[in-house]
Amino acid sequence: MKVCVTSYGPTLDSKVQPIFGRCQYFIFVDPVNMESEVEPNPYASASGEAGVESAKLVIEKGAGVILTGRMGIKARQVLDAAGVKIMIMKGEIVREVVKAFWKCG
Question: Which CATH code fits 3-104?
Answer without folding.
Answer: 3.30.420.130
